Amino acid sequence: IGGETLRQKRFIDRLIKSLGFASNSIQKYFASELTTEKSLSPIKESLLSLSLFSQSQLIVIYDADQLKAAVSSALTNILSKTTTSAFVVITSSAINTKTQWLTKINETCTLCSFSELSGSALREWIVREVQQCGTTAGIEKDATDLLADSFGNDLSTLAQEIAKLSLLLSS
How far apart are CA 30 and CA 53, in angstroms? Predict the structure, then answer.
């Protein structure tokens, strides 16, 4: 939960990589595709039946805060009956954590929050991003402050700028 889509995407990518999901065992849906209870049928089939081709599955539902109440309720019902080895990731930029369906889901699931970074947390993220780009020299505090002040907490833009800078430093 949270508006930081880059961190959500990277979390999902790490989950796929660390758990070794095959491409045929990953399903992704956007709330705009899940407009009726009938549109949940592929999710229901995947979660309530065993797969012959993979031991576990990953189902990602993006923008869950945009699901209609009836669809949210039906999804909660499906998730509560799940018998297979499946990971379901539900992303949302802004969702009321006290809604009935999220409260019910939270009884059996782990909730990860990806709130926007600021202050020292943002600067620490910049330092880690520089390290991930393979820049051995690191980054000076003034440069970290300049990036944070210039681009704020827009992590996608920051990641792009840091990648550009690391390319300049490597050449």
Answer: 24
DSSP string computed for 57-93: EEEEEE-GGGS-HHHHHHHHHHHHT--S-EEEEE--S
Q: What is the pTM of this model?
A: 0.71
- Backbone angles phi and psi of 42, in degrees to 5: -65, -35
**Would you call 62 exposed, middle or buried from its count of C-beta atoms within 10 A (0-12, 13-18, 19+)?**
buried
∠ Cα 151 156 158 (to 5°): 40
Angstrom distance (rounded) from CA 144 to CA 96: 33
Dihedral sign from CA coordinates of 147, 150, 152, 154: negative
What is d(CA 166, CA 130) in angstroms, rounded to the nearest whole number?
A: 8
- In 3-state terms, what secondary structure has residue 28? strand
Q: Which two tokens stand for residue 7?
A: 């961190």
Per mean pLDDT, which of 42-46, 132-136, 144-148 is the most reliable?
Answer: 144-148
HSE-up of 72 (CA within 13 Å, CB side)? 19
